[in-house]
Amino acid sequence: MSSIVIKTPEQIEGIRKSAHLAAETLKYLEQFVVPGMKTIDIDKKCEEFVRDHGAIPATKGYRGYKHSCCISPNDVICHGVPNDTIIEHGDIVNIDVTTILNGFYGDTCKMYYAGEVSDYAKRLVETTKECLHVGMKQCFPGNRLNNIGYHIAQFAQKQGYSVVYEFCGHGVGLKFHEAPDVAHIADANTGPILKPGMIFTIEPMINAGKARAKVDRKDGWTARTIDGKLSAQFEHTILITEDGHEALTDVYHDF
Predict the structure, then answer these.
(1) Whether pLDDT at 25 is above 70
(2) How far apart are CA 244 and CA 254, in angstroms?
(3) pLDDT digits (tens, 9 = 90+) for 149-180
(4) What is the DSSP string of 153-203?
(5) Distance separating alpha carbons of residues 231 and 76, to the nearest angstrom
(6) What is the mean pLDDT of residues 199-214?
(7) What is the pLDDT of residue 2?
(8) What is the phi/psi pair of residue 160, to 5°?
(9) 12 phi and psi, to 5 degrees?
(10) How far apart are the first and last CA of the chain?
């Protein structure tokens, strides 16, 4: 495992700008997450917006992936491949965007409601959003990294949900994926000590049913719940500061 890179002030500023663009992209795409829209058409809107702002979508070409974002509706946990799937009224939809701006990476995702959704779906989404906030509260110098996942899991399980353990957050900024891995379910008071200049994602994936995932054999990417129940995810890129943290992708304070 490679060592955790402490970013310089100049690198942090570059990563911050890319993270802001990733957040702006999610805000722009909101208008297109509506019943009747194909996920492949949302992906095209994503790529146009990112490139129009002088950046590159990091997922395009990454390990053979062909699209500019991941779009994961309903029972898709993550890495949903944009295609001819039509968004339907009542769907919950995750869009995950990573931008490369001037060589720096910013990574974020959020949930969208397509029309009116059920209270069952809303409760899962709102709990998942709170899981992200619970994890962020553990982001301060001197704390242990795995306290993030420990507190997320404690909170989610008390609400009756399960935490996906097959995917995790990660260091980001100079590369798409760096050290450390950020587990969303972990033992308390373990893992590396958090230090100013560390940048990583927290991106809890919370399931209404069982925690396990199954990856679509046809596309090799789309990860679904094994029981067909709903899943939700939110993600911010987090910078550890001298006195706490900064959520670099939290531009609009809307999640």
Answers:
(1) yes
(2) 20
(3) 999 999 999 999 999 999 999 999 999 999 99
(4) HHHHHHTT-EE--SS-EEE-SSSSSEEEEE-SS--TT-SPBP-TT-EEEE-
(5) 6
(6) 98
(7) 79
(8) 90, 15
(9) -60, -40
(10) 32
